């Protein structure tokens, strides 16, 4: 049985960016994480040890978001690797990391990078 879990729009304030003011002033970011795994045991056991504990996943994402990166591609990839390492039962994973108010010369709500494996 394939089960998908989505942690949608986790919000963080972080210091990712190429420009100096981004690393000093910081910016708001949003992370959405989707993953699939065979979690059929959890469906019948009703026990958190048989699933991917999303509270633990959140803490991994939070930890990686606190490490500054020049590129959001790097931060998204580190999140993907960390979650996959912690939960090897995950067989599909997608990380969407958005920078709110990116530094461009026009109006843009956000820039997003999506990495999947």
Keywords:
117 residues, alpha+beta, 4 helices
Roughly how many Å apart are the termini? 19 Å
SSE class: alpha+beta
| Order of strands, widest sheet | 1-2-3-4
The proportion of strand residues reads: 35-45%
Mean pLDDT: 95
Radius of gyration from the alpha-carbon trace, in angstroms: 16 Å
SSE order, one letter for each helix or strand? EHEHHHEE
**SS elements, strand count:** 4
The shape is elongated
Percent in helix: 25-40%
Describe this structure in words.
The protein is an alpha+beta fold and 117 residues long. Helix content is 33%, strand content 35%. It contains four helices and four strands; from the N terminus they run E-H-E-H-H-H-E-E. The protein has helices at 20-25, 40-45, 54-65, 72-86, and strands spanning 3-14, 27-37, 90-100, 110-116. It has a four-stranded antiparallel sheet. Helix 3 runs antiparallel to helix 4 (72-86). The relative contact order is 0.23. The model has no long low-confidence stretch (mean pLDDT 95).
Question: Which helices and strands occur, and which strands form pairs?
Answer:
Elements: E1 3-14, H1 20-25, E2 27-37, H2 40-45, H3 54-65, H4 72-86, E3 90-100, E4 110-116
Antiparallel strand pairs: 1-2, 2-3, 3-4
């Amino acid at each position: 049985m394939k089960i998908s879990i989505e942690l949608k729009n986790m919000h963080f304030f972080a210091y990712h960016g190429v420009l100096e003011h981004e690393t000093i002033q910081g910016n708001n970011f949003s992370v959405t994480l989707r993953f699939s795994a065979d979690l059929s045991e959890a469906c019948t056991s009703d026990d958190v040890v048989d699933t991917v504990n999303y509270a633990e996943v959140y803490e991994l994402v939070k930890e990686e978001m606190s490490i500054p990166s020049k590129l959001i591609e790097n931060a998204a990839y580190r999140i993907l690797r960390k979650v996959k390492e912690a939960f090897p039962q995950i067989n599909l994973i997608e990380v969407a990391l958005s920078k709110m108010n990116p530094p461009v010369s026009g109006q843009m709500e956000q820039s997003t990078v999506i990495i999947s494996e």
